[in-house]
Amino acid sequence: MRYPVVLTAAFSAAAIGFLIGISFPVQITPKVYPSSFVADDADSSTLGLGDSNVLGRFSTARNSCSRATSTVGASPPPSPILQQPNATAAEVVVVGPGKPKGAARLPPGIVVEDSDLHLRRLWGNPHEDTPPRKYLLVLTVGYSEKDSVNAIVQKFSENFDIMLFHYDGQTTEWDAEFEWSRQAVHVSARKQAKWWYAKRFMHPSVLAPYEYVFLWDQDLGVEAFEAEAYLRIVRRHALEISQPGLDIVRGVKTYDVNVRREEGGEIHTSDGFVEVMAPVFTREAWTCVWHMIQNDLVHGWGLDWNFWRCVNEPKKHIGVVDAQYIAHHFGFTLGDQGTEGNRGQVRDRASVEFGIFKSRVDNAEKAWTATTLPVPSDPNSKS
């Protein structure tokens, strides 16, 4: 007769203890996949994180534990949810990579954010395909300049993938004449400029495998240049944005700071400035520069004056490589397509774009300065 009384007392004590326990604030760190709580288009209320009451915290933990239990045999999550002391449920911070926009409905293990420009065969085992190469050479070309382009490509090793932007619509002609062209990526859009292509076909997620990106014009003399030797120098001096020095005996210059110096070492720093004609970017620097390219401004005038924004300590990490140099022949082939008057009209538009870009940068910087965020300073500023 005593057993029912004892059992009743035990259950009553357990129930009272449970109710007392959940009535106090608790910190719970459930081990769940970050994606269980992060969805780019979902608000916190649909994820159970919007409630700060006791039952809300309890249900969140319970649901989290059930999800974690159901993933037995799966890969461990990248990182747990971390909660700061005294934080409410709405202040839970997820540590680890989130899903890219548009991938909220996919399981994390199937999401692939990055790509490359390496051509792949249509047969065989995909695991046996050759991997993407380490570096990328990108040239904006017209077929009339094929000899100059071929000379440039010959200076780049098999460690480079190659992409050509064709502004004249001629693509297949290259394959018939140059074997390397059959392994290159060809993008054709008539009468467009280099930075128009770059914004549309050089997204950082596509260039993610490449340690360095060469984004060059086609009218360059490369008799004194070797790409692999150039990169050894760039690495040695930790240059994140660079260009070869300019040989003004065989070519032309626009700015003195980019002219090759015959004495003084392998490189010289350039006050955070290299030209848009033959820049070389690290993967990280390119990611920043790509975001600075304006979608509606096709000529890129003014970008080079702002490359410094994409590098920490630009006076140290932006420079000109004197030991590997080129000649700029200053061809103006894009503007020559059409009547003679087109050349002046092209330059007029480029000049207008420069003013628009400068105004946008100035306005953006003023708005940024008005916030509490730190604003990088121009290395060439007098202040």
TrEMBL record:
It comes from the Eukaryota. This is Storage protein.
